[in-house]
Amino acid sequence: MIANYHTHTPRCGHAVGAEEDYVRHGIKRGLKALGFADHTPYLFPGDYYSDFRMRPEELPAYADTVRRLRDAYRGQIDIRLGVEAEYYPDLFRDTLSLLRENGVEYLLLGQHCCGNEIGFPHNNFPTDREEDIKRYCHQTMEAMNTGLFTYFAHPDMLGFTGDDGVYTRYMRELCREAKACDMPLEINLLGVEDNRNYPRRLFWGIAAEEGCAVVLGCDAHRPEALSVTAPEEKAMMLVEELGLTLVTQPKLRSIL
């Protein structure tokens, strides 16, 4: 890896370590670029708020911290300011304005819930319902067509336990749309390290058949994740076995 654009901070409530420690471990690994993409704040209606993302009032300090580190480490590593965001159609426009006001440069698509989140379960919860995989694929395809996301983080996180034929049909549709939108798909190294339900080999076989571009993303929730290479080595075995097209440094799509 020469770049990782999927890095979290403690503001999301489930990551640890100071931002500068992430930078130091990125340099130790030999990264040329490091992007912070913590879970985006969202402007939900009423008093609802999810428990895995920073709050809107935390965004200015987040942006200022990343910019300070960018300046402090200029010439050693290229530091970029992003967020990992779901595509919630009814809320996306106002949240996008908030992100732009704070100078956020790029978005990663990480669709942890469907709909507009409220009333929907986390997407990695087990489900065998066709309507759930259909909703997930079609909503993320709509997101890709905005042209605002740099890449699709853990696109195979959906905990679908139903028929493989149903899974293949919908995920092939998703992969074809990703190819048409020139949207790289991320093999998630946290999933590799924690032995999660993703990366799912069936998905990546489909992605290979459809000629999708893939990236590796650390999804770092602790600084040390940026200097541990074993998950990358396992992911590269999958890349080589399936003949996937690896992009080592994806082009950031600016939202500014």
Q: Return Rg in Å.
A: 17 Å
- How many helices? The count is 8
String of helices and strands: EHEHEHEHEHEHHEHE
Largest sheet: 5 strands, parallel
Proportion of residues in β-strands: 15-25%
The level-1 CATH class = Alpha Beta
Mean pLDDT: 97
Looking at the chains present, what oligomeric state does this protein adopt?
Answer: single chain
Q: Give me the count of strands.
A: 8
CATH architecture: Alpha-Beta Barrel
Strand-pairing-aware structural class: alpha/beta
**Into which percent range does the helicity of residues fall?**
25-40%
Short description:
This protein is an alpha/beta fold. The chain is 37% helix and 15% strand. It has one domain: TIM Barrel.
What would you note in describing this structure?
The protein is of the alpha/beta class. The protein has a single domain (3-246), classed as Metal-dependent hydrolases (TIM Barrel), CATH 3.20.20. Helices cover 37% and strands 15% of the residues. The chain is built from 8 helices and 8 strands, in the order E-H-E-H-E-H-E-H-E-H-E-H-H-E-H-E. The strands form 2 sheets. Strands 1-2-3-4-5 form a 5-stranded parallel sheet. Helix 4 packs parallel to helix 5 (164-180) and helix 5 packs across helix 7 (201-209). The longest helix is centred in the C-terminal third of the chain and has 17 residues, at 164-180. The chain is globular, with a radius of gyration of 17 Å. The mean pLDDT is 97.
